[in-house]
Structures are given as C-alpha cells and as structure tokens.
Design brief:
alpha+beta, Helix Hairpins, five-stranded mixed beta sheet, Heat Shock Protein 90, 7 strands
Length: 425
C-alpha cells in the first residue's frame, strides 16, 4: 500500500518535475558554477585592482553588474531548468569574453588584464564548443562596440590589444583539439571494455556448459536411486538450484554480449520499433532471480507507439533501465517497478518508475556521465551514458526525476512520427 501511495504521488508531480529536466541537469550545474565564481571573484578582483595592484581603469558599476549576474546564477536552481538554459550562454558571454576584453581595451592592453582574459578563454573552452565559439565572438564584438562608444576605439588597433588575438585563437584551437582527443580516448576505452566483456563472456560459456552437463548426469543417476532416504531428495533440490543458476548466468552472459556489441555498432535508426513489443521482449529475456522478482515488475500500456530506432539497441536500453531498477530495489529491500508505455501524448514516451531508494539530488547531474557509478562498485558507469547516447542518435531524450529514499522515474521521450497509436490493457 505504501508503494501504491508513492507511485500515485510520483505520478501527480511528474509533469511539473519534467519541465525542470527537459534538457538534463548540465545547465543547472554550469549556472551554479558561473554564479559562485562571479559572486566571489568580482568583489575580490575589484579590491585587488583598485588598492593592491591599481590599474588605469576600473568600474564599480560593471563589477556590481557582474556580482548581480553571479547571484542570479546561484538562484537559478529555484528558477527552473529553462531559466538555466538561457542564463548559461548569456552569463558566460558577459563574465568571460565581454568583461575581460572590455577591461583589457579600457586599460590599454595592461599585462594583468591580458592574463585575466587568457584565463577566461581557457574557462570558456570548457563549455560545449558551439556555445564557447558563439560566446567568444559575441562577447568580443560587444566589448569592442562598448569601448568605441566610450571613445577608446583607437586603442583596439594598438599592438598590445591586437597581439592577443592570435594567442586566443591558438588557445581555443589547442583546447578544442584536446577535447576531441579526450573523446577519442573515451571511445577507445569503450571499445576495449566491449571487447573485454565479450571475451570474458565467451570464456565463461565453457565452464558453465560443463557444469550443466555434469548436473544433468548427476540428476539422471539420482533418478535411478531409490527414493526412501532424504539425502537423495535434498541432492535433487540442490541440482535443480544449480541448473537454475547456470541458466541465470547464461542469460547474464547474453546481456553482457548485447551491451558489448552496442558499444561498437552504429547507432543510426534503421527500422521502426514497437515500444510495447520491445518491453515484452525485455521481460521475456531478463534473467529474473525468482518469481517474486518478476512479479515486482508491472507494465501499463496507455497507448502503444512506434519510433525510428533499432530493435536490438532498444532492448539494450530497456535492459539497462530494468537492471538498474531491480538493483535499486535489492539495495533498498523494498519497492516495485512500473513500466508505462504512453503513446497518447503529443510526444510519446516511456516511463520507468521504481519505488526503491531513489537518487540523491546532488548525484542526479552526474548519472548520465560516462564512467560515473554510485556506489563506486556498482558497475562500470557506462549503462546510462550508453542509453542517452543511443536515444540522442534517434532524436529522443532521456531524463530522470527522483526523490531520495522515495522513487526514481526515468522518462524516455520520442519525437512524434504521427504513427498509429493502439491502446493496451
């Protein structure tokens, strides 16, 4: 009954929560970091550059505006996800290239501001590449325009200012190259992990097959024995349990191989996939440890829908989500899983709801990052990142709404293909 109340409560607030998680939690983290840095550095650097290391030009008004921008970033968590999404590019443009370039020009290319602007360029390149390039171009042009309005247009064409341009371009190029190299290294690591999983899974087949053959032989021998004593019956039960575990391990190996192949294959959509059929296939293939565990999973089809994807990769995504939900129930010692296929919405979606231990708010921004796992021993940290990568390749989205010690809801939202929607029981 308690689980039912939790599910109803979760369902009641899901619409409001999903609006805050439309594009993931990265923008909220970026807004918070920008906010704290601006709130701390602007007053501190104003004191340093006014009294400790005086510069030719300083602006208390601009510093106050930068501090206000920082405070707005800190308040962004309460303002909602959409606010964070437009705040980040505006704040990054103002706080990094605009402010640094403007102060460099107004101070005639002073060395302190040249170094400050260089640090700002390095920080800017840690944002997504497109955002960083747009912010750099926009902030630099606006800073030059403001300097011209203040009568310092001639300073822009002086050597101390112009010589910074190739330095900035070199920094941007090197950091972008480093980002591409890091991405390539991640792909190599994923490929190696996939090959390792495949090799280990294949190697496990032989001893499991041998164990299964020996168990079948012992079972036939026991069947020939008289049934008078209790020992043979206990041995028969043990043999049955061993056979069940062997089948369970073989199913797990199939999952490992499926995930290993998903890491290496192309993700482009190649077929139309029925969501309800994929869900039922996952329930048939998943190696449940007991009938009770299987009974803890319920499926509700509010309306089936089809989407452009790949059937086997869809199974990989759903298996990962189901496995994570059942592991959470095992850790919490309570809970159920509810899978909702909802194709009646404008954007059809699938909900994975578990009423187990939930996810702490401080950890939610990182759960889709590659190689992040919590607890640290709980897997490789590849599963959810792979799910998001697959779904993004299909123009779909995945996000999480959770409350610690309460519930976790994974929402998979797909583009509307105007496909036929069929109702389900």
């Amino acid at each position: 009954m308690r689980d039912d109340r939790i599910e109803r409560k979760a369902g009641g607030i899901i619409a409001a929560q999903l609006r805050r998680h439309r594009s993931g939690e990265r923008a909220a983290v970026q807004a918070l970091v920008l906010g704290w840095l601006a709130l701390i550095l602007h007053p501190l650097s104003f004191v340093l550059f006014t009294w400790v290391f005086p510069q030719p030009y300083e602006s208390a008004t601009l510093r106050a505006l930068g501090t206000a921008v920082g405070a707005a970033g800190i308040a962004s968590e309460r303002m909602g996800q959409r606010y964070c999404e437009w705040y980040v590019p505006l704040a990054a443009t103002f706080l990094l290239p605009f402010f640094g370039t403007y102060m460099l020009i107004m101070n005639g290319g002073a060395g302190a501001w040249a170094q400050w602007l260089l640090v700002a360029m390095v920080a800017l390149c840690h944002f997504p590449t497109r955002l960083a390039l747009r912010a750099y171009a926009t902030g630099t042009l606006l800073a030059c325009a403001c300097a011209i309005l203040h009568g310092r247009g001639a300073t822009i064409m002086t050597q101390p200012i112009l010589q910074q341009v190739p330095v900035h371009w070199a920094v941007i190029a090197l950091l972008c190259a480093a980002r591409f190299s890091r991405t390539a290294l991640e792909q190599d690591k994923l490929a190696g992990m996939g090959e390792g999983l495949g090799a280990v899974a294949h190697e496990m087949r032989t001893p499991l097959a041998s164990m299964d053959a020996n168990v079948r032989g012992l079972t036939r021998m026991l069947q020939a024995e008289p049934t008078g004593s209790t020992a043979p019956e206990e041995i028969r039960q043990a043999m049955t349990r061993i056979q069940y575990e062997v089948r369970h391990m073989n199913h797990l190996i199939d999952l490992f191989l499926l995930s290993a192949n998903a890491v290496r294959r192309r993700l482009d959509p190649t077929e139309s996939v029925s969501m309800a059929e994929a869900v039922q296939a996952v329930l048939r293939r998943y190696p449940f440890t007991s009938p009770a565990q299987r009974d803890a999973v319920a499926v509700e089809v509010r309306g089936n829908f089809s989407f452009a994807g790949q059937y086997e990769l869809t199974v990989v995504v759903l298996l990962n989500l189901l496995r994570n939900a059942l592991k959470a129930i095992h850790r919490a010692g309570k809970g159920r899983v509810r899978i909702v296929v909802d194709g009646r919405r404008k954007a059809p979606r699938l909900l994975f709801i578990d009423t187990a231990c939930g996810i702490a708010a401080r950890r939610q921004p990182f759960i889709f990052q590659r190689f992040y796992a919590y607890p640290a021993h709980n897997g490789t940290g590849v599963g959810l990142a792979l799910c998001r990568q697959i779904l993004h390749a299909w123009k779909a989205d995945i996000r999480c709404v959770s409350r610690e010690n309460g519930y976790a809801i994974f929402v998979l939202e797909f583009p509307n293909r105007h496909a036929n929607v069929t109702s389900g029981d």
